[in-house]
Structures are given as structure tokens and as C-alpha cells.
Amino acid sequence: MFSRKSPLLPVLICSLLWGSAFPAIKTVYQHWDANGLERSLPVIFLFAGVRFILAGGGLLVVSKNLKGEIRATPWFLIAGLSLTQTFIQYVFFYQSVSVSSASLTALLVATGSFWWMLLAPLLQKTPWPSRLQWFGLVLGGIGVSLAIYKPGAGAGDPILGAVYMITATGSGALALIIFSHLKPTMSAVNATGLSLFFGGLGLAGIGAGALHALPDMFDFIVIIATLWLAFVSATAFSIWNHLSTLFPVTLLASYRFLIPVCGVLEAILLLKTESPGWGLALGGFLVAFSMILAKRTSPLNPVR
I want to staple 102 with a disulfide (CB 3.0 to 4.6 A). Which of 120, 136, 156, 267 is the partner? Predict the structure, then answer.
């Protein structure tokens, strides 16, 4: 499907798709606010759950050899992927976008690369970061701190938003490591479909208290946004999980700087309520530069 020489093009596609999720979710939140709908946690989680049930269900409809791969795959790996990739990650992700700006939360997605560089040596026995990579990690941390300090207009609560997003990206990093153990017996499409579907059921379950508000939640604008977000999840996660079968986790982590770059740009372009402060601009530059340093020192040989 993709070249084994470089993941740049498919990563760019994932980045543009995931980047669009930040202004899309924020637009839904602002639409609810304008209509007087209380943005409670059950409402947020039910909205997220519907998105991922649709995304996962769509992938499972077109899946191949699903029953056979489920039989061949340990159940705890499927459950672990559903918990980390979808349920836990998006419990915190949606709260982060709710309490802080879309551009800040998009930038903080870069912390997923830091998590991977630290967790991969511990859990996958890959080499520890080099001195230059450690320098990049420190530089990226400074960039994140500057972005939180002066994030710009519409920032909301940047500290709480950062805590939520860093927790979310940590869960996402664990998900990719879990998938590395699952991929010998299950395709990326089937694994992604199961993860999104069951994780979505979990999110909808904890948001069940908002079922009475469904007619107010899902008007035409929100339905269109939800369908787009479901497409984003199904497509981007499938591509990303497939890439993890072709390239080392550390290499993919180094390319992830494209995700916050796309997210920040799309949020600023599409949301009139946000404008970057000097901290977000300078911090974003430092984060991107730190990821470039990590990329230049990552192994380029694909996983066989």
C-alpha cells in the first residue's frame, strides 16, 4: 500500500485528517454553547462515543477474516488496544479541547512523540534516545511550557488542558506499543475497527446520562461534523496502524511533528475565536525543531 522507503506522504495525510479534528470538535462545542446546551461531561462523552462507534462499525463492515483473526488474537490485547487507543485517550482528549484552545491542544499532541521515545526502550527494548535526541526532548518540553504560558486568545484553561492532553497522548503511545504485539495475528483495519467500536461503546456508556439530550445534541451541523470525525478516525488510525507494521515506532514518532503543525494551522485558519500568542508561536517552533532533531537521529530501516 505504501512505500517502505519513507512514511512522509501517508503521515502527512494522517496529520491533515487528525489536524481537522481540533477545529471540528471545537466548532461543535461552540455551536452547543450558542444554542444554550450545557457542555457537561456526559454530553461530551456521548458525542465522542457516537463518533467512534460509527468509525469502528464502518471499518468492521468492510473487514476481512475478522472472525479468524479474533480467534487467533489474545483477547487482552484487543481489550488493551480498545482501552488505550480509544477509551482512555479520548476521555482526556475531548476534555482537553473543551477546556482549552484547539490550537494549544493540537500543539500538545506532539507530546505523544516524547512518550514513545521514553516508553519504547522500556517496553520494547529499543535503544534509548541519543544525546541529541535527549536534547530534542528537553527543547520540546521548553516549547510546550512556553505554549502553555502564553497560548494566545481563546486559550481557556491551558494548564488543565495540557494535563488532559499529555495524559491522552501517553495513552495513545501505549496503544501503538500494544498494537505491535497484536499485529502478527490481526490486520490494521480489523484491529482499528474493534478498538474504535468497543472504545466508542465505552465512551457512550459513560455518557449515557445525556441520552435524553440527543435531539438537542445532534442537529444538522453536529451530524455533519460527527460523520466527518468518524471518517477521520477510521481512515487515519487505519493508515497509522498499518504504518507501524512497516516502520519502527521511533521513526514514526519523529514524524509526528507534522500532526501538531497541521492541527495548529487548521485551528487558526478555521476558528475565528483563536489567535496564537507569542508563547504558542515560539513554543510550536521549538517543538517542531525538536521533532526534526529526533527524526534525523532515528533509524531509517523499516521493520521486516
Answer: 267
